[in-house]
Amino acid sequence: MKQSAGSRLPNWKTRPGVQAVTDIPENNMRTRLFSLLMVLALGAAAQSPVPVHTDSNSLKQIYFAGLRKKMVENFPEAEKDFGRIAAADANYHAAWYELASLAFKQNKVDEAEAHIKKATALQPGNEWYWILLAEIYKRKGDMAALTAVFDKLIALAPAKDGYYFDRANALFLGGKTDEALKAYQLLEQKFGNSEALEQARDRIRLHGQPAPGDAELGAMLSKGPGDVNSYLYLSGMLMQKGKSAAALKLLKQAQALQPENYEIDLALADAFRLEKDEPASEAALARAFGNQLMPVEGKLKTLAAMIGAATTTAKKVQLARWAGAAADLHADEPRLQALYADILYRTGRLAEAELRYKSALQLSENMYTAWEQLAAVQLAQHKNTDAIKTAGDALLLYPNQGSTYLLLARAHAGTGNAAEADRQLAIAEGMAAGNRELVADCQALKAGIRFAAKDYREARRFIEMALKNNNRNTPVYLEQLGDILYMLGDKPNALVNWQKARLAGNDDVLLKRKIDEKEYIGRP
């Protein structure tokens, strides 16, 4: 059936990826590797390096403005500020550090590495810079480079035993077993023996060997009777060797010792999953996320790491259940409320997501991404008037956000106010400053406004401009081009573009109907 074009726009969404408000790198809660490194990395986040002395007060002002934007997670604008500083003064090492930190938070690992190397070259004595480089190499799995970084850190802080330990671990993970044993020997000579050191040596001794039997496990556990960390370590080793049933047995013993230990529940979830017992695995995770003792940071990191793996509806529902348990338990934690809202948004539970975004912003209005996501989820529910208010409130706090002006334009277009939508789009484009994706989204919305006004030739001009940018929204733009071509009477090429949109990843149900029925179908 064909829809007459009126004042209401077709629902061409740019489908922005629902980015978690707190973008935290994946961290395995059960591992003991790189433990000190993680503590120091968190310290570095809380204590950004003091900028190098400069006579330019304007650069200092830009630097601290960038830090403020980073603190409220307005990463795009913070990146612009630090980039301006680096362009003006290439020796401003703190700006390179901040650019590296922002890139790392957004998983742009190669970019982060390039930036932090400039910082370490300019100020090689700054411990925090090397810590970030170590985190980058850990993420990349480059153990050789990671070992070299620990050499630098040991030279800078020879009294910190954690650097020696993590250097030895990196050597072991890099396949250099003999060198790792020598590194552990050096650690013992400088700082004495310890349970952790003995476990590390056991790990090397057992590497490549069959999984230990009950007698050997008992002997290893006897080194620290009642220490659940030993159970966790050994169970992890058993799971790596394909002995999940034996690992499960150990973990149940550990649970009897400490039934409220959330790390045991996290490990049990892994073991049950390997044993194909999904209900038990889900129950263990639910206990962990519902445990008051599990730190909020740990819950945020674990949930954020799970988001990418939740690719099926069932997994998304599970993830939402666990996130909901954590958010309800920590009702005063805005980041958890916002992350739960992100997950609800991904599962299509828009009304619930809206409420959680509002809860997060009531707790803390300093979350730029949450404002935009709230406006986006309101637009997805056709609450255009509410979205106008939300975007307006966000712009009072963050007045230089082109993407927020785009949302405001979408909301005005949804009410049929094309003139106001065009005015907001002009502002958004003026702020794009080389952001081709934002420019393309503005052009696509202009095409939608012209389509609604039945000015199909002008709509085609704008959507073809948007397609030249070839960004993540291209599958949606291709569908839009197909709609416009259909209205211009070019039905064969309309079908070609709808099919291209489908192949490019646009899985919209209505698009499938257009292809199957070979005609334009408007949204209700």
TrEMBL record:
Keywords: TPR repeat
TPR repeats: 93-126, 228-261
One Pfam family this sequence matches: TPR_19
Sequence intervals crossing the membrane: none
SUPFAM superfamilies: TPR-like
Listed PANTHER family: CELL DIVISION CYCLE 16,23,27, CELL DIVISION CYCLE PROTEIN 27 HOMOLOG
Protein name as annotated: Uncharacterized protein
Organism of this sequence: Pedobacter yulinensis
